[in-house]
Amino acid sequence: FLYEFCSFCTGSLSVLYLSIICCIVANVLLFFPDGKINFIQDEHVTTYVWYFMGIGGGGLVMLIPACVFLGMGKCVDSCGTDSCAMCGSVFAALLGLAGSAYCFLISAVALFKGPYCFTQMGWRYPFEDDGGRYLFAREKWSFCIQPAHIVEWNVTLLSILLGLSTLEFLLCFLQLVSGLVNAVCRPCCYKQEYSLNA
């Protein structure tokens, strides 16, 4: 069972790397509403993009546990071979949990607050006091005049970040469980093997 679980962890590494890349790309795209650069030049982007939730939390921070897991022999070889390796796996998983949680929380807050856009009352957050109800009321999205399709742009990218950060959190949680199980079970296996040989 443990071997199969570790094999699953190995396959999850490719998913983790893909998720990291997608998080970074999604965060970068948030800087360029409607695919244009003039809005960031005029500082007309939501302040939450400067928290780098996808670039930092779901991206660069997640690279550390991903590299640690890969360097430990893609989890299978690390199943109890070394106590330091197991400790490294646990700490890396905890770091990954923190990074993915940060990405999720900031993305959720940004999605709840809504986009920063030009309305008939000027540049503002038109859905700031809406309590997130604008997400289910597409007729309100026309309140944002510029950038074009900014609500769809933000909702799509932030939803992607929410989904990917959730996936990263689950993968790191599985790695954490794997590391803890190895730390607990491996000494028992060694004792049993030693007693059989004796």
Automatic annotation (TrEMBL):
<protein>
    <submittedName>
        <fullName>Transmembrane 4 L six family member 18</fullName>
    </submittedName>
</protein>
<dbReference type="InterPro" id="IPR008661">
    <property type="entry name" value="L6_membrane"/>
</dbReference>
<feature type="transmembrane region" description="Helical">
    <location>
        <begin position="157"/>
        <end position="177"/>
    </location>
</feature>
<feature type="transmembrane region" description="Helical">
    <location>
        <begin position="12"/>
        <end position="32"/>
    </location>
</feature>
<dbReference type="GO" id="GO:0016020">
    <property type="term" value="C:membrane"/>
</dbReference>
<dbReference type="Pfam" id="PF05805">
    <property type="entry name" value="L6_membrane"/>
</dbReference>
<comment type="similarity">
    <text>Belongs to the L6 tetraspanin family.</text>
</comment>
<keyword id="KW-0812">Transmembrane</keyword>
<feature type="transmembrane region" description="Helical">
    <location>
        <begin position="48"/>
        <end position="72"/>
    </location>
</feature>
<feature type="transmembrane region" description="Helical">
    <location>
        <begin position="84"/>
        <end position="112"/>
    </location>
</feature>
<keyword id="KW-0472">Membrane</keyword>
<keyword id="KW-1133">Transmembrane helix</keyword>
